Amino acid sequence: MRVIAVVFFFVIFIFSLHPTFANNNADPVNSSISTSTTSLPADGATTATISVTVKDSFKNSLSGDHIKLTSSADSGLVINGGPVGVNHHTAATDSNGKVNFTVSSRNASPGTVTFTLTDTSDLPPVTLGSVWVTFTPASLAPDPSCKDSAPTSVPMLQSAEVTGANQITLTWSEAADPVSYYLVAYGTSSKQYTYGNPSVGGKGTISYTVGSLAYGTTYYFVVKAGNGCAPGSYSNELSAVVGGVRITSTPTPTPTLTPTLTQTPTPTETPIPKIPTLVSDSSNTKMLPSIVMILFGLGGMSIGAIIYWKNKKTGEESIEEKQLEED
């Protein structure tokens, strides 16, 4: 028993000296995620810092773990100064189990982006949690590598009118040169432009029709001019409520075919004369010759009897006459 007790306390001592041996798996409950801001302009220069501290189930900091940051789609996203549009990045935690990520956006039609953090050192990987950052529309900060000059003024959005079913036509005044393109951005909330077209036309374009909009929904629109790699600033914002026809998916009923009944005239019966039919197998037919012979026989006998009785009577009379003569 003493040996078992010594071994038990030795194991406890070893784990107390090396806490990371206790459990090397990240624990989402004890780990933490924070962000320096939840909203920032999509100007390509302003950044938000996402910080992660990774701990195990005993609240021990896990150093050297590889943490992967993954975002939802954003074509203008930049993570830790990397390439534009790449939506993931991996970094290792420091001795305190901490790692930082910086994010920014150059998206012309920005919105809210979801960032998810995963500890890929564990098998299977452990999802630590998510944070949300909203990027708002803004003019892009100058790109040091761009040699183009931005437009010297912004376009003025003049109207947003319903011009057809589920569509709105925008008109604006031109921006001052240099101008090589115009873009349109819009959304269902003010200053939240989640949709758009990065090039609706070149210099001289003053209108654009946005289609496939939801009936009865209010949309907010802006327009921007740009020149090459140098974009300008957004115009004023206009809103409009979409008209048109509400589209419903009511199935077309299948017609029920009702047969047309045509009255058939009742045929007139034509009387057919009955023709007697002799049946060769009839018993009456077979007996007919016998009946005829019997009738002829009876007739002959009757005639013979009459003649007999007549002759007999005549003979008797003659005898009587002779007797009278003799007397």
Molecular structure report:
The chain is an alpha+beta fold and 327 residues long. The protein is elongated and about 180 Å long. 18% of the residues lie in helices and 33% in strands. The chain has helices spanning 2-17, 283-326, and strands at 32-35, 39-41, 48-53, 66-71, 77-79, 88-92, 98-105, 112-119, 126-136, 156-164, 167-173, 181-187, 195-201, 207-210, 218-227, 230-234, 238-241. A five-stranded mixed beta sheet has the order 2-9-8-4-6, with no helix packed on it. Strands 12, 13, 15, 16 and 17 form a five-stranded antiparallel beta sheet that branches. Strands 1-3-7-5 form a four-stranded antiparallel beta sheet, with no helix packed on it. It comes from Candidatus Gottesmanbacteria bacterium RIFCSPLOWO2_01_FULL_43_11b.
